[in-house]
Amino acid sequence: MPQIRVRFAPSPTGFLHVGGLRTALYNFLYARRNGGVFILRIEDTDRTRFVEGAVQNLIESLRWAGLDYDEGPGKGGSVGPYIQSERTAIYKQHALMLVEQGKAYYAFDSEEELEAMRKQQEKLRIPPKYDRRALKLTPGEVKQKLESGVPGVIRMKVPEAETIAIDDIIRGRVEFESDRLDDQVLVKSDGFPTYHLANVVDDHLMGVTHVIRGEEWLPSTPKHLLLYRYFGWELPAFAHLPLLLNPDRSKMSKRRMQDGKQVDVFVEDYRKRGYLPEALVNFVALLGWNPGTEQEIFSLQELTEAFSLERVGKSGAVFNIAKLDWMNSVYLRELSDADLIQRARPILEEAGFANTSDAYLVAVFHLMKDRLNSLDDLVSFAGYFFKEPETYDDASKKKNWKPETAGHLHLVRAGLLSLGTFDHAGVEGVIRGVAESSGVGGSRLIHPLRLALTGIAIGPGLFELMVVLGRDTCVRRIDRAVTLLG
Ligand code: GLU
Question: Which of 174, 237, 420, 459 has an alpha carbon within 20 to 30 A of 121's alpha carbon?
Fold first, then answer.
């Protein structure tokens, strides 16, 4: 059996979508599992949709996710270049071969003519399709138009009344009626190939053995099958992956809210929000594929060992953000201190907390890690570790801040200042002592103290929290709260 070669072939039209990450991942896993080669190919022939910087971002997102490719931009390989805009001559030459053999033809219709044709077909209630008027041109007329520079396209000639079928690895046999296919444009008037031509030519020339891609490309597949036939090339195997869906089963296309949580569609957004790549990769691996066991947490290595296309389902996969958050928290809790520091630094820096020490960051993390869903939560929900509270929770203020509170906190403050070592036992002793000497229950001190120190009513254990904040910060925040809350 020849070596397995697969490719991820994104168009650089923007950031990498989580669906794109899933496609890249399945290709990567399939290659690794089978001792194959994973290729990255950039499909940038649609110049109207090209986005500056998108290629760099795609490569960066794959690197972040740990999906190393073997051949592709920046890596090289024996069948490059791997960027389609650098291969236009190859496509043109292949299209001309088909023209010569009568399997494709030149057409010179203007936009207006095509529009009028569509309108007419609409009126007659026939499916919109190119009516092949260009086939009436004689070879002499075509030659003359080409020589005088009339802009033209090359279209493929689709056979009439034929059933075209594939045996998809995931979907089984899928049939298409050729009569429903348009004479697809292969080369546009700007000289660039369309996706269909470039994709097939490259899959062949790059020796791709398995085309693993999203279900949205299934309708294009019969055109590709015809091209393979016209060129006389052997077909690769096809596997069309199920769509990614929102919980209401609509297609997942842009950012939205799900149970009060933000659901993003771009890998970049998850990266920025402090999700760990291991967690996102583990999560998208299970969008469509299942291991056939109860196991849910998989390292990339474990995925490689367990993955098979046979265990990918055909029905749409629902993107459940609560599950991603859970997975992320599992991975977060396992982070080493060194890893944590490296990953949390950029988030702290972006939030303006660059001068936090490593030791302090680690202490905050250990105190909070069971409550975090993502590293971003360090600054969003536990921001009070890094900056003074700016506001004080109203409900807690009403309930817990009494006229005598300032007096009690004053005693706590004095006790903290006189402590030998500022540790858990010492802090607890001070608070219990003040509660006893003032004849109030501990909770009459703990709630207002938490409010004074953090501005909110929930959080980790108060004594542990105070030890992490440190004596100076506790004293300063007590003073500030007493001034502001009276
Ligand atoms: N360029 C297409 C995309 O953006 C590739 C589809 C395919 O894999 O054939 O997804």
Answer: 174
Residues 6 or more apart in contact with residue 416 via CB below 8 angstroms: 422, 427, 430, 471, 474, 475
Which CATH number goes with the domain that contains 363?
Answer: 1.10.8
CB 58 within 8 A of CB 305: no
Which residue has a Cα nearest atom 10 of ligand 1? 10
- Judge if 138 and 171 occupy the same domain: yes
Catalytic residue among 254, 261, 399, 402: 254
Total-model pTM:
0.89
Pocket of ligand 1, beta carbon within 6 A: 9-11, 43, 195, 199, 213, 217
Both 100 and 212 in one domain: the answer is yes
Mutate to test the pocket of ligand 1, among 195, 202, 227 (most ligand atoms within 8 A of CB): 195
For residue 198, give its domain range: 88-241
Pairing of strands 5-8, 37-40: parallel
Last residue of some domain: 188, 217, 241? 241
Q: Which two tokens stand for residue 426?
A: 């010492």
Residue-wise pLDDT for 12-64, tens only, equals: 999 999 999 999 999 999 999 999 999 999 999 998 888 899 999 999 999 99
C-alpha of residue 15 to centroid of ligand 1, in Å: 14
Known catalytic residue: 402? Answer: no
